Amino acid sequence: QVQLVQSGTEVKRPGASVKLSCKASGYLFTSYYVHWVRQAPGQGLEWMGVINPNGGTTIYAQRFQGRVSVTRDTSTATVYMELSSLRSEDTAMYYCARAPNVYGSGRSWFDPWGQGALVTVSS
Amino acid sequence: DIVMTQSPDSLAVSLGERATINCKSSQSVLYTSNNKNYLTWYQQKPGQPPKVLIYWASTRESGVPDRFSGSGSGTDFTLTISSLQAEDVAVYYCQQYYSTSPITFGQGTRLEI
Fold first, then answer.
1. Dihedrals φ, ψ of A64, to 5°?
2. Residue range B35-56, pLDDT digits in tens
3. Rounded CA separation A16/A88 (Å)
């Protein structure tokens, strides 16, 4: 079955960077865009960016420009999201999610989602 | 940015009754070339990632009970649960995918019994 499995919990100091992974299985990796969405504790959903695994092109939300980098490794069907200059407000659950709308150039609903990776930023 | 505004923020409905959640976008999410509304609805239960219920504003995802339905076009959309079940207690989000600069979500609606 189509599945996205994310790396585990991270605890980071302010100013540090974190790199999360999202391993895809059950489908042709290069055919579907992968998005990253985060959710602060008790809060709503916030879109961060998207990658086209076929070629590696990315689009990022303006508010994360310069701090976020999404990459992929086609040999392992894994997408990575690195967020730098961490601050306490970056404490959140981070999700990767596949975009099923193959004709949308990334413009899609998300299904499935990874299980999430909790990142805690604290001194 | 396309701002998505849901109403109400929270909602209490009796078992078996109808629940209605609204979502309004700050600009149209109807793509005229294919006449599709780039709007989806998710259900999120505690400790779980969101689950897609509806996409293209009114297409029910496979396996989603038919008591869930989506309607609307342009800027105004509605998620309806025709007969509330106990397992429907969750937070519901709308999301537009008309623009990826950025993709945006509503603030969420908490549905309780």
1. -110, 0
2. 999 999 999 999 999 999 999 9
3. 11
Residue A90 φ then ψ, to 5°: -85, -5
- Nearest partner of B88 among B17, B1, B2, judged by Cα: B17
Cα dihedral: B19, B89, B5, B59 (round 10): -70
For residues B112 and B11, the answer to whether their CB atoms sit within 8 Å is yes
Distance from A108 to chain B by nearest Cα, in Å?
5
Cβ atoms of A114 and A15 closer than 8 Å? no
Rounded alpha-carbon distances, angstroms, from residue A75 to A20, A79, A114, B27: 17, 11, 19, 40
The SS3 assignment for B30 reads: strand
- The position carrying tokens 């959309």 is B77
CB atoms within 10 A of CB B37: 26
| Cβ separation A107–B38 shorter than 8 A | yes
- Please name the residues in contact with A46: beta carbons below 8 A apart, sequence gap of 6 or more: A37, A38, A39, A40, A61, A92, B105
By Cβ distance, the residue of B93, B97, B98 closest to A44 is B93
- Measured in residues, chain A has a length of 123
Model pLDDT for residues B9-37, shown as the tens digit of each residue: 999 999 999 999 999 999 999 999 999 99
With 0-12 / 13-18 / 19 or more C-beta atoms within 10 angstroms meaning exposed / middle / buried, residue A123 is exposed
pLDDT given at position A102: 78
